[in-house]
Amino acid sequence: MREIIVARGLHFRYGRHAALRGVDLAVRRGEILAVVGPNGAGKTTLFRLLTYYLRPQRGTVEYFLDGSRTPVREARRRIAAVLQEPALFSTDVFGNVAYGLLLRAPWGERLRTRFVRGLRRLRIGLPPTRIERRVEAALETVGLGGFPFRRASSLSRGEAQRVALARALVLEPEVLFLDEPTASLDPESAAVVEGVIRGLREKGKTVVLSTHDPSQAQRLADRIVRLEEGRIVEVVELTAPGESTPPRPAPPGG
Amino acid sequence: MLKRFLAAGGILFALGMSLAAAELVLATTTSTYDTGLLDALNRAFAELFGVKVKVIAVGTGAALELAKRGVVDLVLVHARPLEDRYLAEGWLINRRDVMFNDFVVVGPPEDPAGVKGLTAATEAFRRIAAAKARFLSRGDNSGTHFREMEIWEAAGIEPGGKWYLISGKGMGENLIQASLMGAYTLTDRGTFIAMRKNLDLEIVVEGPVKGGDPLLMNPYGVMAVNPARFPDRNYVLAMAYIGFLTSPQGQRIIAEFTVEGEPLFYPTALKADPDFSEYVPRDWRG
Amino acid sequence: MGEIWDSFQAAFSLLAHPDRYLLSTILVSFKVSGVALLLCFPVSAALAAAIALGRFPGKGTLKLLIRTAMGLPSVVVGLLVLLLLSEAGPFKGLLWTPRAMVISQLVLITPLVLGVMVSSLEGVSRRVAEAAHVLGANRLQVAWTVVKEARAGFLTAGVAGFGRAIAEVGSVLIVGGNIAWADGTSYTRTLTTAIVVESRKGNFETALAFGIVLLVLVLCVNLILGFLERPGEAR
Predict the structure, then answer these.
(1) pTM for the full model?
(2) Is C92 on the interface with B (CB under 8 A)?
(3) Model ipTM value
(4) CATH (residue range C20-229)
(5) Rounded to a whole number, what is the distance in angstroms from the first to the last CA of chain A?
(6) Torsion angle of C-alpha atoms A114, A120, A121, A123, degrees rounded to 10
(7) CATH number, residue B176
(8) Which of A210, B42, B128, C190 could bond C182 through an S-S bridge, CB–CB 3.0 to 4.6 Å?
């Protein structure tokens, strides 16, 4: 089955403000889907619903990661997200990037990792644990290898954004949500991130990203969905990223 | 599962409580406790019976109310009218006289109301009211406060006005305030003697211990909480304490308790020919 | 002026040779307030997490109640606990013991500790909770992560609670009875209630000595609080 996320009839309001007014969306396996639109259009809300952080007042969100319907708990374990200006935890870089791994690891491994980590902080060298190796690999991918003890609070904006990305990447999610992934990045870091996104697609992962930058969408995405005032107004099918085809207006919900 | 856990915890708790049962709780007045007499008595009691007495020192009114709620085992107070009431209502039983001292009326050395040397407290109060000289009342339902009210009543005066002030404090603090304000006040002799060096006050009306007004007599009574009403109180130990207080040994400790060489209390429990008025309310028809 | 200085000097010399009375009183103060805090802390932490992170109607009213309870005078709390303990059958034996004092201090400081904890949890950005969620944390794990982010505020809550407990006099006076044994050892007499009885008796130097100890303690508590609120500057 080509569609791994199916969202139907999504309505969501914060108090009196209606953020989404009837959205139907399907995300296809292995694609890069870009959600574009002006501020306040409902992009972040859509992401919150798709990651099950919020429950829609009306409508459903369903995952089909293995062909049949994936239960919510399992789906949540196999996806990850990086928020707009993401909040890092007040610990060091390792603590942040390893967060999701530690959640998923059995308690024995958790204890062992923390113990080894503590010893390493005291400059006692031990062979790296499985979690430490994966963290290091993820940090390398975003170009931040080598400084796992740095406090999160001492990072620059760009570095923090990349740590947040590593935090999600390390989980090797089947679907990765990125809300404005290069918004506060300098051009070099932005290029690194875009490279990471493309790399994911090559590995067959699915990426859903939101962006302000229409050229970024054109560069990266297989499909572009345009959101305005809580509704999908346009869906554009690009045959391959980088190739631009004249937009074909299609009915919302394609 | 939670219920069983709570039940087990509750049983252990109650067990612990009952093992700690051998204690005695005595409620008394702050002025009595502050003299230090009770510590002397309780040291001896601990030697005799191996029991440490818990003394709760509050106002007279509060001490009696605590007894009425069954949270103490016995009381030692000095307010006969109130004691009679609680006896009549059956909250407290087995009253015995223990000791007495007396009240004195004290005032500033300048004696603005000209009452120094009077032999009747009622007359002194009348002159103070007439002169509108400052008077400081405890105003706290204490034994002293009750006696003060009785004297006003006997003098036929209802105190009030700018000259009549209420401190609401304990005896020691009341004396200090009276001294600072240059006010007259009623005090028990014991507290006055103990604090005399810090005060700028003199005795203006003497009490019966030094041959003065019998209206200023201050007798102390001890009573046990009625076990029929509060069976979980330690009645037997309370009676042992009353026995101790009214025994030759206890009475001797009281007689020998001095401050600055002067005795504070005079024991009255031992009577070769008892007069039965100590056991029942004074107006008992029997 | 000279008299005040004399009193202080007398008080300090009393402190230089602490007797059993002073030491046992300090011990009682610490024991009671310490145990009260120890019991209060985990319960308040769990409650605070439930309140701050939960979505339920009447949250505003609940927070108002907590703020109101924070301002309860200690005497009122003492009276309430006294009345409660004098009615409830099996618990009657608790009156006039340090345990009753722990109970009344628990009632007294929990609203404060809870209030500060809730405040500090709400000060943690909602985005932290969201970040934890989208990385796969369940409700309990999200709560624990948010609590860890608020750990400084939680520490402040604990220290503030202890400070309030050790310096209060109203409730422990009423439910403890201010009892000292005949040999001078304190049973339910704390630093604060000792000041009450010694000043009532006119032993002003002794009362002052106790007061100085209390002041030093409260000073230390405030120093710690100040350090916690600005961790960088103290270095």
Answers:
(1) 0.82
(2) yes
(3) 0.86
(4) 1.10.3720.10
(5) 15
(6) 160
(7) 3.40.190.10
(8) B42
